[in-house]
Specification:
By secondary structure, the chain is mostly helical. It contains 20 helices and two strands. It has two domains: about 160 residues, no CATH class; about 140 residues, no CATH class.
Length: about 350
């Protein structure tokens, strides 16, 4: 028997940054199609605005730093950030929302730290959080899903109306096609119980199917990325499992005042966060044990902020807070090296 002896590294396939980013862009297609189908052309317009402005800001930053523009733009990281921000903001948001968001995401959340691989926070979520705090009206005016937008049951803004709304700020179009999201409705119940809201509110009765379908689309894209080994299952499963468990306990104790676990998982941006945002390899934990801790923290924070905080969907704040904790998580969850003790809390573990 003959053995083949080869020196390390034993690489069996290409796994460059650009190839990973291309897979992420491909996996986002189902979610983008679902957003367009249920909420209109605005999503595609926001993607175009974010892509153009994001690539322009990235090229400007690279030029100022004296780095080769074409080489660094080819890693597609700016494109992924642009798509993540574009699908997170309302389809009817003014065009300058996307431009301001990409300015913050690229220049202040990414390039100021040294570019790809050095940013401590997820750039798209930094931009989203700043936009939400600074422009709450524009960032909370979400389009109604198609089942509620018109009397015929299938009415979304036409392309011309979407362009007018985004670039001209047509108030008539805004009033006809926008409204509160289900999570916002369930959070601001005006004294009604959760069950009463489900029986009386049109958005909850007829419109939640669109949000469930959108979450399913993000879920399918995320499963594809796990299959392609872009990331492991640890972070998504720990986020979804923790949020589902905690919300199930709360709902079981007091169903009149808490949202059930299924709708916690499917009515907001939970699936998008679990598979496309929290799995960012730069700003999240690195070991498998660390990713589980990281995901548990995000799940707990999403439930806490949604239930008692000021914002109905807490994904951005939960991810950013756990980005801040990622270095400490990494310090205490790294696998033990042979011959060394595992790191512990306190001076002896340092």
């Amino acid at each position: 028997m003959s053995l083949i002896r080869m020196s390390s590294p034993h690489v069996t396939r290409s796994n460059t940054s650009s190839s990973v980013m291309r897979l992420v862009l491909l996996a986002m297609i189902p979610g983008i199609l679902a957003l367009t189908l249920f909420f209109g052309w605005g999503t595609l317009i926001q993607i175009a605005v974010c892509l153009i402005s994001g690539l322009a800001f990235e090229a400007l930053a690279l030029k100022l730093r004296g780095l080769p523009v074409s080489r660094y733009l080819g890693d597609y990281s700016a494109a992924v950030t642009a798509l993540l921000l574009a699908v997170s903001i309302p389809p009817s948001a003014p065009f300058w929302i996307g431009i301001v968001g990409m300015f913050v995401a690229i220049l202040f959340a990414k390039q100021v730290y040294g570019g790809i691989g050095n940013n401590p926070f997820n750039p798209a979520m930094v931009a989203y959080a700043l936009l939400l705090i600074s422009f709450p009206v524009q960032m909370t005016s979400w389009n109604l899903p198609y089942v509620l937008s018109g009397s015929d049951g299938w009415s979304i803004p036409a392309l011309s109306e979407s362009l007018s709304l985004i670039f001209a700020g047509s108030s008539q179009v805004m009033d006809a096609y926008t409204g509160a999201t289900p999570l916002d409705i369930l959070r601001n119940r005006d004294g009604f119980t959760t069950e009463e809201m489900w029986r009386s509110n049109q958005t909850l009765i007829e419109g939640t199917a669109a949000y469930h379908a959108l979450s399913a689309a993000w879920f399918m894209g995320g499963i594809y990325l796990i299959y392609k080994k872009v990331f492991t299952w640890h972070t998504p499963v720990s986020i979804l499992g923790t949020l589902g468990l905690v919300s199930a306990i709360a709902y079981g104790v007091d169903p009149s005042n808490f949202v059930d676990p299924f709708n916690h998982l499917t009515l907001g941006a939970t699936m998008l966060a679990a598979f496309f945002i929290a799995t960012d390899p730069v700003s999240s934990a690195t070991s498998n044990r660390g990713r589980i801790v990281f995901g548990i923290g995000i799940g707990l924070l999403i439930f806490t902020i949604r239930t008692w905080g000021n914002y109905p969907d807490a994904v951005a704040f939960a991810v950013l807070l756990m980005n801040l904790a990622a270095p400490m998580i990494d310090h205490y969850t790294q696998p033990r090296s042979y011959g060394h003790k595992r790191a512990r809390f306190g001076p002896k573990g340092e």
